[in-house]
């Protein structure tokens, strides 16, 4: 026990040192406890923003918008470029803080910071490509075109499992689009948020931009609610559970605000008889067990053709047996901790439920007692199910992979689509007809061939359908969600012809 306390204290000291080297002041203590899932101990206690502070932060962002919107987009990109430089310079420290607070292994934490740098680069290029279309006018001497304009204050609500990348997806794009940002990070990861906020403010100072373009508000759902209900917030971009989205969306709609929702997934991979099983096993293990099953795109359902299912399960069980579970700060560890006790309890409940529904736990699910009573390390579980039951259709945010079997591809695609969520999906096949049939048939926002469901690149639009919320972030033309469109008609003739040939008076 003493050892655990000492270990937690060491992690807390390390978090303070990292904040210091990232230039962030150690915050005033308060009731918000930043914990580390590595030991379950407290890293730092922080203050929660009171309603008046949230109100003031939104006010500052709204005021800053009035001048930021007038800065040319390529000049606005200078701020994002400076942010990217700071992220490159501090990549290791920021990644270590992600590991401390979210429990990601080093490689994944570094990858998450890399994703921030990548999206900054994308946004910088985008700043010169916020194109509108021009159309032929039906009237002589007229020009018809669309132009895109900054939207206003963007409220970003983010989840614990991508504590920095999701913020960057939103913020880098919103800033080049001319918007200002108020960020409500997960109450589980307030320190990484503080670090990002500090780097962005420093970038603003370095570039002579108004640091008020970015505001950070800390706290739980109550603080998030204030952002959701505030009419000065033009767009609420909310990432998290379907439950959260179901509360947020109608409230934003009721005030005619805009919502961009990135909610839960229940992602499936189909493995066809022709699949390269070596490749499939590698792809499946990373997607299902990586990040301890705590990615929105984590693989939760494996739909294997009956002819290869036994062989595949055997190979997966062997691969699962080799996964090292433990302290994510240690080299060689592939599976870090669950975020907290609640996640562990949900996993155990789902496993017990799966057995009650006729499931067979092939391996995993048990807790690995390593770094203290409040730290929750588990072996990823593989569970064979007789059918896609109610439980399988739910997202349990933990490393459980349910295995189902199919005979015909149509049946497999129906299983893939037979859940309320619609985020990510994939097929392993060497048969092009099957691959194309799957790409046309999957109802998800992401559909892959011969790779797993997780690990998207920032160049494509990211998001999902149905209860996943329908939002798109990051690459492609996702920027359009952060701007408003105006249709402009310019008459450069001396006549005033009306559209549709109408004669008036
Ligand atoms: P969560 O829904 O518990 O919390 C997410 C955020 O929403 C937090 O900042 C929280 O404080 C805030 N929040 C909760 N209720 C709110 C309310 N009523 N009003 C305003 N804000 C509110 O989710 P979590 O446990 O942090 O994250 C895991 C979930 O997020 C999973 O379901 C996962 O699939 C999902 N997720 C989705 C994506 C995606 O891009 N689709 C990405 C990451 C995580």
UniProtKB/TrEMBL annotation:
EC number: 1.2.1.3
Keyword presence, Oxidoreductase: yes
Sequence intervals crossing the membrane: none
Protein name: aldehyde dehydrogenase (NAD(+))
Signal peptide: none
Organism this protein belongs to: Nocardia fluminea
Record family assignment: Belongs to the aldehyde dehydrogenase family.
Pfam families: Aldedh (PF00171)
Subunit annotation: Homotetramer.
């Amino acid at each position: 026990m003493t050892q655990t306390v000492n270990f937690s204290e060491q992690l807390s000291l390390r978090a303070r040192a990292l904040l210091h080297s990232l230039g962030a002041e150690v915050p005033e203590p308060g009731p918000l406890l930043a914990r580390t899932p590595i030991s379950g101990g407290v890293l730092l206690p922080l203050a929660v923003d009171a309603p008046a502070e949230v109100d003031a932060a939104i006010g500052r962002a709204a005021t800053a918008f009035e001048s930021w919107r007038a800065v040319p987009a390529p000049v606005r990109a200078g701020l994002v470029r400076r942010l990217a430089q700071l992220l490159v310079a501090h990549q290791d420290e920021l990644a270590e803080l992600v590991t401390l607070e979210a429990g990601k292994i080093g490689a994944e934490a570094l990858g998450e910071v890399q994703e921030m740098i990548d999206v900054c680069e994308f946004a910088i290029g985008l700043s010169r490509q916020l194109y509108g279309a021009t159309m032929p006018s039906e009237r002589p001497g007229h020009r018809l075109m669309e132009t895109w304009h900054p939207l206003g204050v963007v409220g970003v609500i983010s989840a614990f499992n991508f504590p920095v990348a999701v913020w960057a997806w939103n913020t880098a794009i919103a800033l080049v689009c001319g918007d200002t940002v108020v960020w409500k990070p997960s109450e589980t990861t307030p320190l990484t948020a503080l670090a990002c906020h500090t780097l962005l403010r420093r970038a603003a100072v370095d570039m002579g931009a108004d640091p008020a373009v970015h505001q950070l508000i800390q706290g739980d759902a109550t603080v998030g609610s204030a952002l959701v209900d505030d009419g000065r917030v033009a767009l609420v971009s909310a990432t998290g559970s379907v439950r959260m989205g179901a509360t947020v969306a109608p409230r934003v709609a009721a005030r005619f605000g805009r919502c961009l929702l990135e909610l839960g997934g229940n992602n499936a991979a189909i493995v066809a008889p022709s699949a390269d099983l070596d490749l499939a096993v590698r792809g499946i293990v990373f997607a299902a067990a990586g990040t301890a099953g705590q990615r929105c795109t984590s693989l939760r359902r494996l739909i294997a053709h009956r002819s290869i299912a036994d062989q595949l399960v055997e190979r997966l069980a062997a691969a699962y047996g080799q996964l090292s579970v433990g302290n994510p700060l240690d080299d060689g560890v592939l599976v870090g901790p669950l975020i907290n006790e609640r996640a562990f309890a949900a996993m155990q409940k789902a496993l017990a439920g799966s057995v009650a529904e006729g499931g067979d736990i092939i391996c995993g699910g048990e807790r690995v007692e390593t770094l203290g009573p409040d730290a929750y390390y588990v072996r990823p579980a593989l569970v064979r199910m007789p059918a896609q039951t109610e439980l399988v259709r739910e997202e349990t945010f933990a490393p459980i992979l349910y295995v189902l079997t199919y005979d015909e591809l149509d049946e497999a695609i129906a299983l893939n689509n037979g859940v309320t969520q619609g985020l990510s999906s994939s097929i392993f096949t060497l048969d092009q007809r099957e691959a194309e049939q799957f790409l046309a048939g999957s109802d998800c926002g992401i559909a892959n061939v011969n790779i797993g469901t997780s690990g998207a690149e920032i160049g494509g639009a990211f998001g999902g359908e149905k209860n996943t919320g329908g939002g798109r972030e990051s690459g492609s033309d996702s920027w359009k969600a952060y701007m408003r469109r105006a249709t402009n008609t310019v008459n450069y003739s001396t006549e005033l012809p009306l559209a549709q040939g109408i004669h008036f008076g």
